[in-house]
Design brief:
380 residues, seven-stranded mixed β-sheet, six-stranded parallel β-sheet
Length: 380
């Protein structure tokens, strides 16, 4: 089958790879009709992880069940399904408690598994014509038949639940004011989710004009950090108090203000200053234990200079970690079905799989309006 294969820093290619097959009675094979490129994929694409050449990328996958293992009980050939990026067993201690992003079964020696991602287990990615789904009864979320709302539903694999998760981590409640740092796909989903949860005012911080425009279009207040300290800009619009809650949707490749260099802890420290005393921070943005491309020796080891003293002084609460997609995807799916949510506003490009190499390059460079790319390996 054709698949997106990582060749080395800043290079992917469409290659023929081995077809997936049923390996366990609980597996299904899915014919992939939509698969999205994620900002997390760019970390590997840029050589900023320990990913080795040969990985098939793709953890945001939607398609149609083609074959089922003999142990599968709730799925049939022809079912349209979307899979969380988390590969999870459904029965370990963490899965049973709802922490499916930290499954203890699927990736021995590590809490958590995912498709097509470094150190997240042996699960081939879905930027391909087919993908194998283990523990399929648990991991597949059924969708309505047909092709309607395809680009909405594919976002249930990761970025819509992850944006919502940022709000859960920050305990966003009706009436809260919220600051979201980062207007990429996850940041826009976090801002959108804050509004769905009843936030009274949402600020979105970024420097890319197209992204800030998207934030404004959904009703958020855009804050361009190239125009001045973002925490101060937000305080000026909140009576000097700052916001009730804050969300980091950027992660470790954050840009220094006014300079063309990275400052990995700047968003964390900016949030500490942005959020009022006794508020809360949610951090779904990716941080890693090692970063070969880090700007200094400490950040290369995943050790950042965070203002813990100010965090403590202000009595701020803090939640971190990747999204437990299964905790949210069912009710977010139902909101899409009932026209209560339409997350596909963030999708800028839908392309055939063969254009993946160009799409990675343009998405990485933030050019030509590339904000979120959905690839279509096969017809729906």
């Amino acid at each position: 089958m054709r698949a997106v294969v990582y060749k080395g820093p800043f290079e992917v290619a469409i290659e023929q790879v081995e077809d997936p097959r049923i390996q366990h009675p609980n597996d299904v094979l899915v014919r992939v009709t939509s698969t999205a490129i994620c900002g997390s994929d760019l970390h590997m694409y840029e050589g900023r992880t320990a990913a080795e050449p040969g990985i098939v990328f793709g953890h945001e996958n939607l398609g149609v069940v083609e074959e089922t293992g003999e142990g599968v009980t709730t799925l049939s050939k022809g079912d349209r399904v979307v899979m969380p990026f988390n590969v999870a067993c459904g029965f370990c201690k963490n899965c049973s408690a709802g922490y499916t992003g930290f499954c203890l079964t699927v990736n021995p020696g590590f809490a958590g598994g995912a498709y097509g991602y470094v150190a997240m287990g042996p699960y081939t990615g879905g930027q391909a014509e087919y993908v194998r789904v283990p523990y399929a009864d648990f991991n597949c979320l059924k969708l309505p038949e047909g092709t309607e709302k395809e680009t909405d539903f594919v976002l249930l694999a990761d970025i819509f639940p992850t944006g919502y998760h940022g709000n859960e981590l920050a305990d966003v409640r009706p009436g809260d004011t919220v600051a979201v740092y980062g207007a990429g796909p996850v940041g826009l989903m976090a801002a959108y989710s804050a509004m769905l949860r009843g936030a009274s005012k949402v600020f979105v911080v970024d420097r890319v004009a197209e992204r800030l425009q998207k934030a404004e279009e959904i009703g958020a207040v855009p804050v361009d950090f190239t125009q001045g300290n973002p925490a101060e800009q937000i305080k000026e619009q909140t009576g000097g108090q700052g916001t009730d809650k804050g969300i980091d949707a950027v992660g470790y490749q954050a840009q220094a203000q006014g300079e063309d260099r990275e400052e990995p802890a700047i968003v964390l420290n900016s949030l500490v200053e942005t959020v009022r005393p006794t508020g809360a921070l949610g951090i779904p943005g990716l941080y890693v234990p090692s970063d070969p491309g880090g700007p200094d020796e400490q950040s290369k080891k995943g050790m950042l200079m965070v203002s813990v003293g100010r965090l403590f002084e202000k009595g701020l609460r803090l939640g971190t970690g990747q999204c437990n997609v299964k905790r949210y995807n069912r009710h977010l799916r139902d909101m899409i079905i009932e026209d209560r949510a339409e997350p596909s506003f963030v999708v800028s490009h839908e392309l055939p799989l063969d254009e993946a190499s160009s799409a990675y390059e343009k998405f990485d460079k933030r050019v030509e309006g590339y904000t979120k790319v959905v690839l279509h390996p096969q017809a729906a």
